[in-house]
Amino acid sequence: MPTYTPPLRDMQFVLHELLNVAEEYKAIPKHADVDADTINAILEEGGKFAAEVAFPLNIAGDTEGCTLNRDTHEVTTPTGFKEAYAKYIEGGWPALSCDPEYGGQGLPFTLNQNIYEMMNSANQAWTMYPGLSHGAYECLHAHGTDEQKKTYMTKLVSGEWTGTMCLTEPHCGTDLGMLRTKAEPQADGTYRITGNKIFISAGEHDFTPNIIHLVLARLPDAPQGSKGISLFVVPKFKVNADGSLGERNGIHCGGLEHKMGIHGNATAQLVLDGAIGTLVGEPNKGLSAMFVMMNAARLGVGNQSLGLTEVAYQNALAYAKDRIQMRSLSGVKAKDKPADPIIVHPDVRKMLLTAKAYAEGGRALATYCALLLDKEIHHPDEKVRKDSAELVALLTPIVKAFLTDNGWTSTSACLQVFGGHGYIKEWGMEQYVRDSRINMIYEGTNTVQSLDLLGRKILGNNGATLKKFGKLVARLVEEEGVNEKMAEFINPIAYLGDQMTKFTTELGFKGMQNADEVGAAAVDYLRVLGHLVFGYFWARMAQVALKQIEAGNTDPFYVAKLQTARFYFARLFPETAMLMRTARAGVKNLLDTDEALA
Ligand SMILES: Cc1cc2nc3c(=O)[nH]c(=O)nc-3n(C[C@H](O)[C@H](O)[C@H](O)COP(=O)(O)OP(=O)(O)OC[C@H]3O[C@@H](n4cnc5c(N)ncnc54)[C@H](O)[C@@H]3O)c2cc1C
After folding, report:
1. pLDDT the model gives residue 293
2. Rounded alpha-carbon distances, angstroms, from residue 492 to 110, 568, 588
3. Mutational pocket test of ligand 1: of 445, 446, 524, 590, the residue with most ligand atoms within 8 Å of the beta carbon
4. Which residue's CA lies nearest to atom 37 of ligand 1?
5. What is the pLDDT of residues 406-439, one digit of tens each?
6. Which helix (H) or strand (E) holds 66?
7. Of all protein residues, whose CA lies closest to atom 48 belonging to ligand 1?
8. C-alpha 94 chain-centroid distance
C-alpha cells in the first residue's frame, strides 16, 4: 500500500526562500496581510486533509469506480467520495482563493495551487470534482452577467454546487470549430440547447444537489467554425428566483466511459435535450470566454501530474531503501544483509532522481505561475499586471505539457523501481502510471499545447514574450556569471538561452516557407523551452541552497537541493541538444512518407 507525506518543507522553500511570496504580497494591497506563518498554517491543514481524507480513498476509488443508474441517470461515486467532499466543504476549502463578494476567503491563488498539488498526490480522480468547479467559478466571475453571478457564484464558491466544462462532442475534440450542439433563443431571453457531449469530467455525480454545466453550443445564425461558438450556463436543476432548486433541466448522463485511469472520476456522456441555459458573454465569442476556464484547467492539469510525480517518488524512494537485491558493483554496502538495498545501484538512483528533479522543478514553476496570476489579477501597477499576464500565458502550455510529459516519465520510472511488484496492483504504482496518462491528452493534447506555444505565443508575436522570459535568465546569468560555485548551474542556461533566439528564428523562417515546419518542430521545441525554464528555476534553487550552506546552515535539505540540481543539469537538461537537432530535422522526413504509411 502506498503512503503519502505532504511535501511541506519543499513547498515552504519554494514559497518563502525561492519566491519570497510574503514580500511580493506586501505590494498587493488585497494580500498585504498574508504572511509566512498564515501560509504555513493553511498548507499544513491542507496537507492533513489531502493525506488523511482524500488519500485513503484513492485505491478503493480506482477499484470501485463510478456507476450509472440507467433509469434515473444518476451516478454513484465510489464509497467515501461523497463524505470526503462534505468534509472538504465543511473545511471551507473551495472558497480559499475566491472573491469575498461571493463568500470567498480572498486568499492568494498561490495557496490554492499548493493545496491542489497535495490533493492531486492524494487522489487525482476525487480532486477533479472540486477542481472543475473552480474553473467554472473563474469563467463566470470573468464573463457572467449580474444575474448569473447572483444565481451561481456563492454556491460554486461554497462548494454547495459543482461545475463542469462541456466542450467535446463525439466528432470533435481538438477541432471545436466543428461542434454541432445547438442553442435556440427563446422569447424569455433563455436558450433551448440540444446536442451530445462526451468525456465530460465530473459530468454527473452524487456529491451535490446541483451541477452547473458550462456548455459550448452554436446559435442558429452562427458563422461556421470556431468564430460561431457561444457559451451557455446550463444547470442540472433549474434555479428558482429565490435561489432554491426548481425542476429538472433537460440534460442527463447517458453513459459513463470505461477508461484507463482516474476511475473514481465520472467521465460522462451528456445528452442535452432542449435543456434551458443562459448565454455567458457575447454571442459567438464563447471560445474566448471558455478560455478563462481552459487556461485555469491547463495549469490545473500540469498540477495533477506534479502531484502524481511527488507521490510516486515518495513511494519509490521508500521501496528502494527497503528492497534488497544483488550487491553493489563497487563492493558490499549492507554487510548485515544477504544483499544490498537497491538504492545502491546507480540506475535505480537515476530513476528516483529523475522523479525528484521533475517534482521539485515542477513545483517551483507551478508556484511561480500561481504567483504571476495573483499579480496579474490584483497588483496595483498596470505594467506588473500586463507583464505577469504575458509571462503566465507563455508558461501555461509549458506547465500543461512539460509537467505532464515529465509526470508520465516519472511515474513510469518509479514503477520500474519496484520491478515486477510495480506492475502488480497491490503496490499502487501502476495506478499512478494509468492516472497520469490522461493528463497528456485532455485540456488540449500536448501536441496542441506545443503548437499554441511555438505557433501562436512565440512566432505569433515575433518572440516578444519569449524575450521577457529571456531577460529573467540573462539577469540571473549576470548576477552569478562570475561565481565559480554557480558555474555548473549557470553555464548550461546561459548557453541554451543564447542559442534559443537563433533556434527560434530559424524555425520561424522555415515556418514562413511551409507552415507544416512549425508542426514538425513544435513538440521538441516545447521540451527545449521547458528545460530552459526548469534550468532557470533549478539554478535559482541552487543559488539559494549555496547561500545557506555558505552561511553555515547545516540543514541537509540544502545539500539535497544542490545534489538534485547537479543531477538535473548532468542527466536531464542535456536532452535539449538532441531535441534541438530533431526539431531542426525538418518536415520532409515526416510528410514525405506516404509509402511508409500506406
Ligand atoms: C478522461 C477524459 C476526461 C475528459 N474531460 C473532458 C471535460 O471535462 N470536458 C471536455 O469538454 N472534454 C473532456 N475530455 C476530452 C479531451 O479534452 C479530448 O479528448 C482532447 O481534447 C482530444 O480530443 P479528441 O479525443 O477528440 O482527439 P482528436 O482531436 O481527434 O485528436 C487525435 C490526435 O490527433 C492529434 N491532432 C489533432 N489535431 C492536430 C493538429 N492540428 N496538429 C497535430 N496533431 C493534431 C491530437 O493531438 C491527437 O493526438 C476528456 C477526455 C478524457 C479521455
Report:
1. 76
2. 29, 11, 31
3. 445
4. 174
5. 999 999 999 999 999 999 999 999 999 999 999 9
6. none
7. 445
8. 17
